[in-house]
Design a protein that fits this description.
By secondary structure, this protein is mainly α. It has one domain. 81% of the residues lie in helices and 4% in strands. The chain is built from six helices and two strands, in the order H-H-E-H-H-H-H-E. It starts with a helix and ends with a strand. Keywords: Membrane, Transmembrane, Transmembrane helix.
């Protein structure tokens, strides 16, 4: 299972590093601290919602294999689609819009989408054992 999960974890780690660089340039370009706080709070709320939605599928389970939750988070097709679409829009977007406001708005939205998916996937992968222990779910091997 590590041969499948390992490259997926590395992919999401690379995307998380990319998100950190996007965030650094975005927060430097934002016109005020209030805008930076708004983008940060929105991104964190999206992250919490993503994790809640991802873990809610396993509330009724009594026994799971150790890899079920991490593999579900790492290979979730809508998350991969959002990630690829957000990276594409982030790369192509500044060439399409003329105004600086549209570039900052688009970068903020793409940052929130990438932040919530990449860090949500990583938190879901590395927090699955804690979740299973907290919910009393037996771990099968």
């Amino acid at each position: 299972m590590g041969l499948i999960l390992g490259p997926l974890v590395i992919f999401w780690l690379v995307i998380a590093i990319y998100v950190v660089t996007i965030g650094y340039t975005l927060f430097a370009a934002l016109p005020s601290h209030a805008a930076a706080v708004a983008v940060s709070i929105t991104s964190l709320l999206c992250l919490v919602c993503y994790l809640y939605w991802g873990f809610s599928r396993y509330k009724a389970k009594t026994a799971l294999a150790w890899y079920e939750i991490p593999l579900t988070f790492a290979s979730h097709k809508p998350s991969l689609g959002v990630c690829i679409l957000a990276v594409a829009v982030h790369w192509v977007g500044p060439n399409l819009w003329v105004s600086e406001y549209a570039n900052i708005l688009t970068s903020s939205i793409m940052f929130a989408a990438l932040f919530s998916t990449s860090f949500g996937v990583l938190a879901g992968i590395f927090g699955s054992g804690t979740y299973m222990k907290h919910r009393g779910i037996q771990q099968r091997h």
